[in-house]
Amino acid sequence: MATETLIWLLLVPPLLAFFLIVLFTNRSNRLSHIIGVGAAFLSWLGSMVVFYRAVTTEHLGEHPFTSSFNWLATGDKYLSVGLLVDPLTAVSLFFVAWTIFMIFLYSVGYHNFGQPKGDHDRPGLPPHGATVTDAHGHSHMVPSIEPMYARFFAFIGLFAFGMYLLVLSDNLVTLFVGWEIMGLCSYLLIGFWYGKESARAAMVKAFLTTRIGDMFMLLGIAYLYSFTGTMNFRDILYNQEMLNLLASTPAVGGFLGLSAAGLIGILLFFGTVGKSAQFPLHVWLPDAMEGPTPVSAMIHAATMVSAGVYMVIRFFPLLSAGMEHGHLTTAMTVLSVVGAFTALFAATIALAQNDIKRVLAYSTISQLGYMIAALGIGAYVAAAFHLITHAFFKALLFLGSGSVIHGMEHGVLHTGEHVDPQDMYNMGGLRKKMPITFWTFLIGGFALSGFPLVTAGFWSKDEILADAWGHGHYVVFGVLALAALMTAFYTMRQITLTFLGEPRTKAAEHAQETPWTMTLPLSILAIFAVGAGWVGIPEHFPGMGGLIPNWFHEFVGGTLLEHPVAVDFNFIPLLTSLVVALGGLWAGWTVYSRVKTLKTVDPLKPVLGGFYTVLKNKYYFDELYEKLFIRPAQWLSATFVSLWMDRTVIDGFLHGVAAFSLQVGSALLRYFDTPVVNGFGNQVGEGAKKLGHLLRPIQTGRIQQYMILALVSVATFSALFYYLLVYTR
Amino acid sequence: MIPLSWYLIFAAALFCIGLFGVLARKNSIAILMGIELMLNSVNVNLVAFWRYRTPETITGQVFAIIVFAVAAAEVAVGLALFISIYRRRNTVVADEINLLKW
Lengths: 729, 102
What we know:
The complex is a heterodimer of chains A (729) and B (102). Chain A has 729 residues and is mainly alpha-helical. Among the domains of chain A are: 328-616, no CATH class; 623-697, no CATH class; 699-727. Helix content of chain A is 69%, strand content 4%. A two-stranded antiparallel ribbon of chain A has the order 1-2. Chain A has a two-stranded antiparallel ribbon with strand order 3-4. Chain B has one domain: Helix Hairpins (Orthogonal Bundle). Chain B has helices spanning 4-24, 28-53, 59-89. In chain B, helix 1 packs antiparallel against helix 2 (28-53) and helix 2 (28-53) runs antiparallel to helix 3. The model of chain B has no long low-confidence stretch (mean pLDDT 89). The chains are: A mainly alpha (729), B mainly alpha (102). The A-B interface holds A 699-704, 707-708, 711 and B 19, 22-23, 31, 94-95, 97-102.
């Protein structure tokens, strides 16, 4: 099959799965997950074929696979939409296909397929467990199947479709469509357990927060279209004339002295800020942990947040248009500042979180900030590289944390102990109970902290740091290095608290390894968490460089018109990343291996003092936004709009109109309807009645009287006619 | 040949006798007989006009036969009605049969 046809077919299975499950198979859990996982498998298979063909094509950057058709007529032109596979798409497709497929498979186990129905489970609430009686007559609690099992597969099917569409799009319109489909699906999936108050709040928060970014992004899209007249990536981004034009034209109204390219780039970047949870729109992501864990993996690793970074990487030529002699453009400066700040800021919050998923959520924000900062300093390939390695190890970590929670829930159900199965302080010693989860989580965690030489995270992070150092962005370098240190620290804290030491609760003692549908995806992702880094080892790296050619750089660099040059090797960034990774891991282990019992306070607490509380409360950003935006908005809607404008002005006007109409109506009733219309009708009726009374006597019922009457009438009329017609003639 | 006017005068006389019977008799059956007389006087008229005016066609005879048929049907229905009324009200006096009054 031609690759151009095949790329269209990648989109079909997930969408089809969504509709099939929603419309037909939602009553059957088995059929629904077969369709869901089957669709993910088909898209995965197709993606691998496309990826293979893309990789084996020479100069893919110059001659990508494209296929488009004219969609909307705008004046005498057409808006052309279609698909594009260039090197960036190809590598994105690779990680998207793998992670999505793994997450689909994992969901089967996570939602307890094959377990009995729960005793008190209701749709909209997480399963509470079921009582079963074994052969010996003992009854005990086991996990129960998710009540809305089929619905889950329908939603993530649609989600997968959105991501495939976004990655494969060759234009901003379908990219935005995929973007918004994912926005919708994240709303639906974060609030999957809509019976929980917190889940409902989180879903609304996520939707509204990302909406702010999306609005700016839409402005950027509109501006770009009005300027260039096209939405196609190749026409804009692979077209030096267009880029020069965009860079040399001042933005509309001379806005802040930006060029058109700068303003569009910053507007589009706002979309990423919302979608990839960058400061200041980061607040929704940790709350999004209310959803089931596969959703967290889906949103926070494989798809949605990556989509935001993917979009800015895609638009890097626009952002960097006008860059001369390594001087950053305004848009790039914004990116690097926001990215570096977010990387550090989120890492500090992650230090003080106890919820296993929340730590990962903040680490995701931090890592995304890393990528944004890398892009901001022009490290295009490094950003793409980190995007991909991060997708693998973060998917692994999230699925691993889900596995941990699942195992803990098993323990909670078994012992009947009332502890939070997500709080890391309630865990400990899980390495013996859940060995596969432990080893894979360890690999993922080491990749996240950048454990030297073996893990993927090391190579991608090292490349970012090397780029920052090599191009002389020392502030960014310093901030990112500090963030990397913290990353290693909180990762080791997480691993230590969760898996090492001894169990701190009964539930942790009775935790159990999860089924193969969950551990298999973990194992496969663990392979990538290590191996994905080997495709991008710098050429001059001591010892290992040159053993495997730096394929990634060559391949992804080909996406750009001007192939980026790899930075020269330097020992300072390498040593820095070694020190921060190993130092952070060591510090994390030494500090947190001292936590022995449930009552031990966090060792950081006495050290940081009041600042720990600030971190624990996430710098009070939720409270700040509550006061700054939500309260005024509520005041505006409750007091101003509802009470004053709606109830007083509009209702008052409406009531006035109603009262006036009532008056007119009653006047009409009194002076027109009753006397005139009714009177006339009554008179007609009465008149007919009187006439009837008058004529009643002649109706005797005697036949002969009638006949006489007839005879007399005939005679009279005959005489009359005779007189009139004959005699007078 | 007897002139046409004789027939017409005879028919008129017969009609008047019938009309008188209809108006004056109390017995319903007699009223019915009066009606028969009136119908037959019309038949006499029809046949006479045919014979004297348009003997080449047979329309007059046909018309007369149609009137016979109608009269016969009418008498059949009328007598059946009277029998029914007699059975219910035990009378055939026309003045006493005032059911048509409301």
